[in-house]
Amino acid sequence: xxxxxxxxxxxxxxxxxxxxxxxxxxxxxxxxxxxxxxxxxxxxxxxxxxxxxxxxxxxxxxxxxxxxxxxxxxxxxxxxxxxxxxxxxxxxxxxxxxxxxxxxxxxxxxxxxxxxxxxxxxxxxxxxxxxxxxxxxxxxxxxxxxx
Length: 147
Known about the structure:
Elements: E1 5-7, H1 28-31, H2 35-50, E2 68-76, E3 82-91, H3 112-124, H4 139-142
Antiparallel strand pairs: 1-3, 2-3
């Protein structure tokens, strides 16, 4: 299974039909009955657990619980065939008040392609010191693919 996305073989004759998986749903109730989106949501939850994204703790007295929602996106190949289904579980961060509801805020991260580019530039210019880039883990070694 890929990293928080579900791959789809567009050459398969059992691809999605108009009633199953060809639209980006706007809520969980719509997506929950669709097997393609079920797999995408499972892949996202598996990735979040694998990365230890959160730690469950008791809700402190006087604090509000921050909700979350699913965001669904179909990724396409250049020929407009479906590449994979991507489901993201996102916090409703617009309700947070730093210092009241949370002590840390989310920081966006760079795409892996951006990171690879920066590492290659730093390496060619002699600015990368420390462990060899060959010792860095890649997606293929752990069985997890990163897109």
